[in-house]
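Researcher: Here's a chain I'd like modeled. Treat it as a single chain, no partners, no ligands.
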Amino acid sequence: MKERYAFTLYKIAILGGCWKPIFISTKDLGDQLGISQQSASRRLKELERMGLIIRDVSKKGQFIKITDKGIDILRDLYSNLKRVFAEAPKSFLITGYVFSGFGEGSYYMSIPYYYEQFVSKLGFKPYLGTLNLKLKSFHDIEIRKLLEFLPGIEIEGFSNEKRTYGGAKCFRAKIKNIDGAVLIIERTHYGKDVIELISPIKIRDALNLKDGDEVEVEVFLES
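Model: Modeled as a single isolated chain. Structure tokens:
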């Protein structure tokens, strides 16, 4: 099965379509999938042709339910993913080059709502700033992307009268002999080729680092 059909089936399952018919329009499904209404309609027709869903279509939308055949495919995917994550290593090594950032990390860390969560969830008072690393290789970037999908230490976002602040996720980490955490920020100006580190001390000064220096970070997965 092509990935786009498997992902559509997965989305229908998340909405409850494994156990009972769900009502949804092709526009709403397209929004869920990040595709056009027309593309969503084509995917549903193909899933129906393959016998993976049944539909009852009306002008306002349609009732959709995943068939036993579709559930079998999802079970197979679940079994494979469960095996993959059960065999995941306890930690990853990521290599990158030090660079000066925009000061975004310092601002983020200084917000009391975030800072208090870092203290309570990580068990240390972080230095008000981050160490920025430009990832060295494709392999390092792939690990950074993987971290977005793995369970970590969640830092909740919040809203006030002016704006909404996104959340973040942390993974405990060690750089040289310094304990800290890798910070994956939900809303950031950096791309997928950058990670930010926090610790109780200013890592740059402690390790005498300058822009361009190559460093290796061990990132630990939550058990």
